[in-house]
Amino acid sequence: MKILVGIKRVVDYNVRVRVLPDGSGVDIDGVKMSINPFDEIALEEALRIKEAGKATEVIVISCGNDECQQQLRTGLAMGADRAIQIKTGSALQPLSVAQALLRVIEREQPGLVILGKQAIDDDNSQTGQMLAALWNRPQATFASKLVLEGEKLTVTREVDAGLETIEVDLPAVVTVDLRLNEPRFVKLPDIMKAKRKPLDVIPLEELGVSVAGNLDITRYAAPPLRQKGIRVENAAQLVQELKNRGLL
């Protein structure tokens, strides 16, 4: 069984994000970029499934220009067997990404597709669900535990009320949450080996996917600064202050 893992190039989660002065986007000049943390967890889980003898190949895939090859090589260094770059210079919205992934799925015929539950740059949390609908296959979102037995996958999901356990038939789409696992550390010898692993480049135009989206982003802005807190002397003063602010 093949496992296809989608990864996205994003600003590293340790970086303090700055909005450009004209509000046209986020300043990424000289900023460290990395694999989206949720996608890194997805890849780690795929590798563990393969190491348990329940999969034969792990393929990492990403959409973007040649800069995303850095993240694909990191995925190969973690242990993926092959990498695929869907090459485009345009910023893709979730539906276009899902359509592009579907075209690759039709070529590769994976038994399982694993994605992060969302990307930390746009926080849409839509691609996995859209992909499952387009592929007409089961989906399990926000997974915190996976158990693969034959053609069945048991998934523990994190929901508002706690945990939910469901069973889906393969092939299926799974999106993963933070508590699923802790990704492995990439060692220097693995980075060197990754340079010799295959990385295929597929132009987006070859897949027949449109880059046009149905959402226009007009402006980016930093969140407002938090107001300075105050110290109260007693409970009565606290209640009065809450009433003054319309909170009680």
Overall description:
With 248 residues, the chain is an alpha/beta fold. The chain has a single domain, classed as HUPs (Rossmann fold, 3-Layer(aba) Sandwich). The protein has helices at residues 37-51, 69-78, 94-108, 127-135, 188-194, 235-244; strands at 2-6, 9-11, 33-35, 57-64, 82-87, 112-116, 139-149, 152-159, 162-169, 172-176, 199-203. The strands form 2 sheets. It has a 9-stranded mixed beta sheet with strand order 9-8-7-10-6-1-4-5-11, sandwiched between helices. Strands 2-3 form a two-stranded antiparallel ribbon. Strand 7 (139-149) and strand 8 (152-159) form a beta hairpin. Helix 2 (69-78) packs across helix 5 (188-194) and helix 3 crosses helix 4. The relative contact order is 0.18.
| Tally of contiguous helical segments | 6
Which strand-content bin applies to the residues?
25-35%
Low-confidence stretches: none
Number of strands: 11
Structural class based on helices, strands and sheet pairing: alpha/beta
Core attributes:
11 strands; nine-stranded mixed sheet; single chain; 248 residues; 6 helices
Helix-strand layout with pairing:
Elements: E1 2-6, E2 9-11, E3 33-35, H1 37-51, E4 57-64, H2 69-78, E5 82-87, H3 94-108, E6 112-116, H4 127-135, E7 139-149, E8 152-159, E9 162-169, E10 172-176, H5 188-194, E11 199-203, H6 235-244
Parallel strand pairs: 1-4, 1-6, 4-5, 5-11, 6-10, 7-10
Antiparallel strand pairs: 2-3, 7-8, 8-9
Helix pairs in contact: 2-5, 3-4
